[in-house]
Amino acid sequence: MAVASELAVERKPPRSILFMCGMNAIRSPMAEVLAKSLLPQGTYVASAGVRIGERDPFVDVVLDELGLTAGRHQPHTLDELEDDYFDMIVTLAPEAHHAALELTRSMAIDVVYWPTPDPTVATGTREQIVTAYREVRDHLAALIRHRLLGQTPAKMR
Questions:
Q1: What range(s) does the Phosphotyrosine protein phosphatase I domain occupy (predicted)?
Q2: Would you put residue 124 in left (φ > 0), alpha (ψ -120 to 50) or beta?
C-alpha cells in the first residue's frame, strides 16, 4: 500500500495568479502574500477587490506571526491593476466570483472559487477575533499548498 505522501501529484502552478475578494482588504491580500511566500519564484501574484476597501490591521497581525508582511499594500480594485492578464483567477467570495466570470467570459482564463469565510463577522475578545483571522490565513495557506502545489493536506497524512 502506498503512503499518502507518495501519492501527492507534483503540480506545476500557474505562472500568473490573481486573488479576488470583495474589497481587497483581508482575504485576497492575505492570499497574495501567502502565495508569494509559497509558490516558486517568478510566479506573478496579485490581488484585487470588486470594490475599494480599507486596510485591515488584523491581516498584519496574523501575517506577522509567520514572519510575513503585506508591506505597503493598499486595497485596490480590478480597474487599478497594472496587469490584466492572468493564467488563473482565484475568487474568495461570491461577489468576486460573479465579477470574475463576467470579466473573463470571452477569455481563456481559469476562474476557480475557493469559498473563504469573512473573519470580520467574528465577535468577542481581541483573541477570539484574531483567531478567526488565523483560521482564514491557515485555510488559504492550505488551499495554496494543496490546489496550486499539489501537496497532500496535513489532515490526510
A1: 15-151
A2: left
- Using the predicted structure, report yes or no on whether residue 4 has a pLDDT greater than 60: no
pLDDT 10s digits, 91-134: 999 999 999 999 888 888 999 999 999 999 999 999 999 999 99
Residue 5 has pLDDT above 60, yes or no: no
> What is the three-state SS of the chain?
CCCHHHHCCCCCCCCEEEEEECCCCCHHHHHHHHHHHHCCCCCEEEEEECCCCCCCHHHHHHHHCCCCCCCCCCCCEHHHCCCCCCCEEEECCHHHHHHHHHHCCCCCCEEEECCCCCHHHCCCCHHHHHHHHHHHHHHHHHHHHHHHHCCCCHHHC
For the chain, the structural domain boundaries read 14-151
pLDDT at 2 over 90: no
Q: Is the pLDDT of residue 154 over 80?
A: no
pLDDT band per the 50, 70, 90 thresholds, residue 11: low
